[in-house]
Amino acid sequence: MPTNQAYETVFHELEQTVNALEAGDLPLEQALSHYERGMALAAQCNQLLQSAELRVQQIINGQLVSVE
User: Fold this and answer.
1) At 38, phi and psi to the nearest 5?
2) Cα dist. 51→3, 4, 22, 25, 34 in Å?
3) What is the DSSP string of 19-48?
4) Domains of the chain
5) Centroid of chain to Cα 63
6) How far apart are CA 64 and CA 53, in angstroms?
7) Alpha-carbon dihedral of residues 12, 16, 21, 23, nearest 10 degrees?
8) Cβ atoms of residues 13 and 41 within 8 Å
9) Is the pTM of this model over 0.85?
10) What is the rounded CA–CA span in Å between residue 58 and residue 39?
Protein backbone atom coordinates (compact mmCIF):
# COMPACT_ATOMS: atom_id res chain seq x y z
CA MET A 1 0.00 0.00 0.00
CA PRO A 2 1.42 3.43 -0.88
CA THR A 3 2.41 5.49 2.13
CA ASN A 4 0.90 8.67 0.67
CA GLN A 5 -2.68 7.53 1.22
CA ALA A 6 -4.90 9.66 3.40
CA TYR A 7 -5.41 8.52 6.98
CA GLU A 8 -9.15 8.30 6.41
CA THR A 9 -8.67 5.91 3.47
CA VAL A 10 -6.36 3.62 5.43
CA PHE A 11 -8.59 3.74 8.52
CA HIS A 12 -11.67 2.88 6.44
CA GLU A 13 -9.92 -0.20 5.04
CA LEU A 14 -8.87 -1.15 8.58
CA GLU A 15 -12.49 -0.86 9.73
CA GLN A 16 -13.65 -3.10 6.90
CA THR A 17 -10.96 -5.64 7.73
CA VAL A 18 -11.90 -5.67 11.42
CA ASN A 19 -15.60 -6.01 10.57
CA ALA A 20 -14.85 -9.01 8.35
CA LEU A 21 -12.89 -10.64 11.17
CA GLU A 22 -15.55 -9.87 13.77
CA ALA A 23 -18.24 -11.46 11.61
CA GLY A 24 -16.49 -14.74 12.33
CA ASP A 25 -17.42 -16.49 9.09
CA LEU A 26 -14.03 -16.47 7.34
CA PRO A 27 -12.09 -19.67 6.78
CA LEU A 28 -8.92 -19.85 8.87
CA GLU A 29 -6.52 -18.92 6.06
CA GLN A 30 -8.61 -15.90 5.08
CA ALA A 31 -8.92 -14.87 8.71
CA LEU A 32 -5.13 -15.03 9.09
CA SER A 33 -4.69 -13.01 5.91
CA HIS A 34 -7.17 -10.40 7.14
CA TYR A 35 -5.43 -10.29 10.51
CA GLU A 36 -2.04 -9.68 8.88
CA ARG A 37 -3.55 -6.99 6.67
CA GLY A 38 -5.23 -5.39 9.66
CA MET A 39 -1.98 -5.26 11.60
CA ALA A 40 -0.22 -3.61 8.64
CA LEU A 41 -3.05 -1.09 8.28
CA ALA A 42 -3.00 -0.33 12.01
CA ALA A 43 0.75 0.29 11.81
CA GLN A 44 0.24 2.59 8.83
CA CYS A 45 -2.49 4.51 10.67
CA ASN A 46 -0.16 4.88 13.64
CA GLN A 47 2.63 6.18 11.39
CA LEU A 48 0.29 8.71 9.77
CA LEU A 49 -0.91 9.90 13.17
CA GLN A 50 2.66 10.25 14.44
CA SER A 51 3.58 12.28 11.34
CA ALA A 52 0.58 14.54 11.89
CA GLU A 53 1.50 14.99 15.55
CA LEU A 54 5.06 15.92 14.57
CA ARG A 55 3.77 18.49 12.09
CA VAL A 56 1.52 20.02 14.75
CA GLN A 57 4.44 20.21 17.17
CA GLN A 58 6.58 21.87 14.50
CA ILE A 59 3.83 24.41 13.82
CA ILE A 60 3.41 25.13 17.53
CA ASN A 61 7.15 25.49 18.03
CA GLY A 62 7.42 27.74 15.00
CA GLN A 63 4.61 29.97 16.26
CA LEU A 64 6.08 30.17 19.73
CA VAL A 65 9.45 31.24 18.33
CA SER A 66 7.93 33.91 16.06
CA VAL A 67 5.75 35.34 18.87
CA GLU A 68 8.63 35.85 21.28
Assistant:
1) -60, -40
2) 11, 12, 29, 36, 25
3) HHHHH--S-HHHHHHHHHHHHHHHHHHHHH
4) 7-67 (1.10.287)
5) 28
6) 16
7) 130
8) yes
9) no
10) 29
- Where residue 58 falls among pLDDT bands split at 50, 70, 90? confident
Tell me the per-residue pLDDT of 3-31, one tens digit each, with 9 for 90 and over. 568 999 999 999 999 999 999 999 999 99
Amino acid letter, 16:
Q
Distances (CA, A) of 42 to 12, 16, 36, 37, 64: 11, 12, 10, 9, 33
